[in-house]
């Protein structure tokens, strides 16, 4: 396997190369390095690589820019490398998988996690990656990528009860857990309009998770959630979501039709 490490930090490139040397499954691998996306593009023009170990935030173009180029070329290219992002910034996980990443490793990379990433790449190489999208070849189930303790987890969309704004992040609520992602509510609403409906400027609820609508008492100051005096009950949990006046007829209509 020919591997290209793309990272602006020399120590990070050296560490990755050393970890690759320690993996039996990488015996015989040819490893090249690039300090930025421009250098990586030049190497890729003159050589064939099966795997990119790609940082995200670098001077000039980012790793996401390079991955986006590969996604655009995929339907027309004979063979393109798999992409594994290796970065100190775990908030980019969802964007990484949108750019057809096979895996997402956070620094400092552990040898075991690097080995797991290589195991995910190998089936794609055996099956041929000519026009395949590796992010969907591995698992076709609609899901979200979330990062916890340096590992990327996939949360099936069918398990998500609601999304809610939480400062700069978006809270993802399942029956068992909470996760944080950096994708704005508006973008999630556009992507998953068939599954989720907006209740309020701050929340989206899964249509299948709506248990009912309740009227609540509004504080005299009118300080509660835009004076929303209705809330959504969500199946399986005790939490409720505020309903704006604009969205109340929409939600009532969903309940009547469902």
Can you offer a commentary on this structure?
The chain is built from 8 helices and 15 strands. The protein has 258 residues and is of the alpha/beta class. It folds into 2 domains: 2-137, 3-Layer(aba) Sandwich (Rossmann fold); 156-257, OB fold (Dihydrolipoamide Acetyltransferase, E2P) (Beta Barrel). A 5-stranded parallel beta sheet has the order 2-1-3-4-5, with helices on both faces. A 5-stranded antiparallel beta sheet has the order 10-9-8-12-11, with no helix packed on it. The chain has a 3-stranded antiparallel beta sheet with strand order 13-14-15, covered by helices on one side. The chain starts with a strand and ends with a helix. The relative contact order is 0.09. The model is unreliable at 129-140 (pLDDT under 50).
State the helicity in percent bands. Answer: 25-40%
- When the domains are counted, the total is 2
How many distinct helices?
Answer: 8
Q: Can you count the beta strands?
A: 15
């Amino acid at each position: 396997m020919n591997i290209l490490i793309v990272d602006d930090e020399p120590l990070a490139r050296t560490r990755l190369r050393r970890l690759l040397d320690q993996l039996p499954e990488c015996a015989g691998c040819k490893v090249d390095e690039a300090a930025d996306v421009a250098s990586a593009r030049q190497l890729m023009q003159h050589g064939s690589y099966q795997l990119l170990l790609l940082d995200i935030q670098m001077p000039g173009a980012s790793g996401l820019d390079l991955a986006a180029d590969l996604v655009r070329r995929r339907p027309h290219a004979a063979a393109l490398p798999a992409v594994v992002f290796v970065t100190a910034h775990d908030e980019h996980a969802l964007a990484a998988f949108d750019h057809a990443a096979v895996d997402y490793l956070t620094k400092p990379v552990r040898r075991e996690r690097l080995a797991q990433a290589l195991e995910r790449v190998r089936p794609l190489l055996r099956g041929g990656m000519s026009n395949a999208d590796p992010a969907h070849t591995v698992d076709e189930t609609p899901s979200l990528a979330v990062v916890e303790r340096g590992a990327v987890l996939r949360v099936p969309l069918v398990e998500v009860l609601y999304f809610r704004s939480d400062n700069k992040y978006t809270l993802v609520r399942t029956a068992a857990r909470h996760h944080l992602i950096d994708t704005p509510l508006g973008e999630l609403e556009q992507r998953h309009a068939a599954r989720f409906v907006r209740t309020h400027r701050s929340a989206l609820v899964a249509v299948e998770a709506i248990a009912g609508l309740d009227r609540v008492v509004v504080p005299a100051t009118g300080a509660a959630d835009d004076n929303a005096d209705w809330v959504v009950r969500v199946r399986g949990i005790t939490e409720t979501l505020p309903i704006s006046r604009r969205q109340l007829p929409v939600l009532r209509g969903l309940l009547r039709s469902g």
